[in-house]
Amino acid sequence: MLGLIATGTLINYLDRTILGVAAPLLTRELGINPALMGLIFSAFSWSYAAAQVPGGAFLDRFGTRLTYTLSVAFWSLFTLCQAFVTGITGLIGLRLALGVAESPCFPANSRVVATWFPRNERAFATGVYTVGEYIGLAFLSPLLFAAMAHFGWRSLFVGAGAIGLGFALLWWKHYREPRESRANQAELDAIVAGGALLDQPPRQRFDWNAAGRLLKTRQMWGICLGQFAGNSTLVFFLTWFPTYLANERHMDWLKIGFFAVAPFIAASVGVLFGGWWSDRMLARGRSPNVARKLPIILGLLLASSIVAANFVRSDTLVIAILSLAFFAQGMAALGWTLVSDLAPEGMLGVSGGVFNLAANLAGIVTPLVVGGIVAVTGSFFYALAFIGGVALLGAFSYIFILGDVRRIVLD
Asked: Does pTM surpass 0.90?
């Protein structure tokens, strides 16, 4: 099951970020300036964020298997269609549709972790599937840039969309809830004893009052602000990073494909390290407050080092700095573990939707701010300063706002 959600997450991020790889050529062909490209990058997150709570409610009502299948099938179709756009309007429309289709993915991932894994294994499980956000572009970047150089940017959308449609069939065939699976009773007993929500009702109606009370809790505000900050660094790498290398650092396609690998590999290592470290601390008796929050706080503090790239000239040193910052952001990508730990029973989908809505406000704000800064100044200098400052804000949120890590009980 972990392999399925890790693969689904890889395809999810490949489909949403392939536009960042295509952007340097796409903008030239369609005549798009940096400010407008920032709007196009942002369009995905407008609908993605808006659909989080409805997507979470759909998940709670219809269950993981059906929700994930429909989500993958539709987002892959919309990715494929982007290969045939001829203007800005069509591209924005498909990015908006893609955001709606992808909205249930991470709430579903969180639900799978909460139902299949005991508490002391959730951080590492979260790290394994979260690494899919990075590993696809880490190892596929040279291939993607080579394909774009030989076959054009449209070929990237065709390939990614076709892979996703195939995975939708694979998910429907193989995913099962624990009691519907071939797991034996001893394994079911073990994960229940570890705190897995095995008996969570598979179908629930949306309760507006309960959702309102959830939004008033300190814990949700803390993790939502923190995840917004961490996502700002992630969004920069998933959208503007190739353009930064091409325009600010003046690298050719071969060099971009080679250098782009390092930060994504570093982030992948950071995700796995953060999850492993968190679970190890928990197993050794450290409190959830320390085990869950410390890797995130240190990661966000270190991610602010991205601003140092403004002050070096060597391309190799720039990539080293960006790799360190992205490694740190990967360490901080444990927020979904906290959702599993904090969500009220029966509200995993809605809690995940609220959390992901707040987190992906970064997907709206960051591309627009970066695009606006580049359009006005012609440089990424203040854009990197913005990313570093937001990372510090996230660390502040986890330190001073979140409070104790324990399951929320709504009055």
From this structure: no
